[in-house]
């Protein structure tokens, strides 16, 4: 009888097979056991034969899958780290750009405020000069006399040079120019300026300068007054290049 062609139920149910496996020699028992391990007892004639995969092959496949998974995780971590670094660098550059723009805006505002202050000071001084000249002329007209007076103009000449001009109708004697001690000043010690004449001097503020006022002192020739007269004016700003 061919045992390989009979189903497992038939083989297991056969009493003579059990008796044979107990009483048969070892080689017969081994042959019967091998037939059972190879699953010759099929679910039906012509059914599929099951294949048993060795355990070592299963562990090798698991190891390979774990290696691939580890490589994928490391790759994903590297990509995520690179993306975070790129975003941080972008944020840093954006912050530096905003700080630079804010600094430039603050500097421009300060510069505009300084220009407005200079312009306001100039207008105030000019208005005060006009009021003083008008007041003097009114007094003279009421007294019936017309006496020329010295009228000064201070303007930037070139670089650190400035020009002081006598725009009035009176000559000025012993004209002296002075400034705050923290300023650099090079001016004639004493000179006379007729109407329309001017003198040039050098002046430059330093980091320690808090007052850039120029003071002019002189004696009038035509007025005949023995008192020394004084005129003060802020140092004009140098033109922007």
Protein described:
By secondary structure, the chain is an alpha+beta fold. It folds into three domains: 3-52, no CATH class; 54-146; 148-234, Immunoglobulin-like (Sandwich), CATH 2.60.40.1250. It is 48% helix and 20% strand. The protein is built from four helices and eight strands; from the N terminus they run ααααββββββββ. Strands 1-2-6-4 form a four-stranded antiparallel sheet, with no helix packed on it. Strands 5-3-7-8 form a four-stranded antiparallel sheet. Mean pLDDT is 73; it is low at 1-24, 40-46 and 135-142. The chain crosses the membrane at residues 66-86.
Brief digest:
The chain folds into three domains: 3-52, no CATH class; 54-146; 148-234, Immunoglobulin-like, CATH 2.60.40. It contains four helices and eight strands.
The largest sheet, given as strand count, sense and whether it forms a barrel, is: 4 strands, antiparallel
* Number of distinct helices: 4
Tally of discrete structural domains: 3
What proportion strand?
15-25%
The N- and C-terminal alpha carbons lie at a distance of 119 Å
- Average pLDDT works out at 73
Poorly predicted ranges:
1-24, 40-46, 135-142
């Amino acid at each position: 009888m061919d045992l390989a062609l009979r189903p497992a139920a038939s083989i297991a149910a056969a009493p003579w097979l059990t008796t044979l496996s107990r009483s048969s020699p070892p080689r017969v028992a081994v042959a019967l056991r091998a037939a059972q391990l190879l699953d010759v007892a099929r679910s039906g004639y012509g059914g599929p034969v099951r294949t048993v995969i060795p355990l070592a092959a299963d562990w090798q496949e698991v190891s390979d899958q774990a290696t691939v998974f580890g490589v994928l995780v490391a790759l994903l971590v590297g990509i995520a780290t690179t993306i975070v670094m790129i975003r941080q660098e972008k944020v840093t550059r954006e912050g530096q750009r905003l700080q630079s723009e804010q600094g430039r805006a603050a500097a421009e505002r300060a510069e505009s405020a300084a220009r407005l202050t200079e312009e306001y000071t100039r207008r105030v001084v000019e208005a005060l000069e006009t009021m003083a000249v008008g007041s003097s002329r009114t007094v003279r007209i009421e007294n019936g006399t017309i006496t020329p007076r010295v009228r000064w103009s201070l303007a930037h000449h070139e670089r650190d040079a400035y020009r002081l001009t006598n725009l009035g109708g009176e000559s000025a004697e012993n004209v002296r120019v002075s400034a705050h001690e923290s300023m650099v000043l090079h001016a004639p010690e004493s000179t006379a300026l007729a109407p329309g004449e001017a003198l040039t001097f050098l002046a430059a503020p330093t980091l320690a300068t808090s007052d850039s006022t120029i003071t002019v002192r002189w004696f009038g020739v035509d007025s005949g007054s023995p008192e020394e007269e004084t005129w003060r004016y802020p140092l004009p700003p140098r033109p922007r290049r």
